[in-house]
Amino acid sequence: MTKFILSALVILLILSWYLSFSATRLDRLHHRVETSWEHLDAVLQRRAAIAIDIAHKSDLDPATYMLLVSSAYQAREASISDRSDAESSLSESLRLLQDDSESVSGTISPALSEELTAMTEKIKIAINIHLESVNAVRNLRTKLVFRIFRLAGHAPLPLRYKFEDDVL
Fold first, then answer.
1. Shortest CA distance to 89 belongs to which of 106, 71, 76?
2. Mean pLDDT in residue range 122-142
3. Residue ranges making up the domain that contains 97
4. Looking only at Cα atoms, what is the longest distance across the chain?
5. Is 109 among the domain residues?
6. What is the pLDDT of residues 86-109, one digit of tens each?
7. Do the domain assignments include residue 94?
8. CA distance 93 to 100
9. Is residue 61 part of a domain?
10. What's the pTM?
């Protein structure tokens, strides 16, 4: 009888340790998602600032100027629900500006152009890191143990945004 109680206690302790370890792992992954989003947000905010600098310091036609400035300000001040559309709009505006580079190549300073190119590469890396973090959390939360014991608690499922699929 005591062996049964002792073995049940050991099994209960092992199960408790496993659940605690799994919940801690999930919590660390959620923290990683939050950190990667903060980094991505900072890089996107910097891109919007560069777009505003390009608009103010370049000799763009009025329509291109207004398009670039309005999409940059919209991206900087959009709420989280409108952020995806605003970032996609800014990406399209910058893509139009880069596609039209033969007519405006002399108007954009090479330093700002290089800074925008470098920022675009940083954004691609930040998006990849963020998507990897989101996918890790989503994959872990689909496991049966996490759903049965509600190890995620009340944490919301991380979201993917539409602008993350944009080709920058």
1. 71
2. 95
3. 30-165
4. 88
5. yes
6. 999 999 999 888 777 555 444 788
7. yes
8. 11
9. yes
10. 0.88
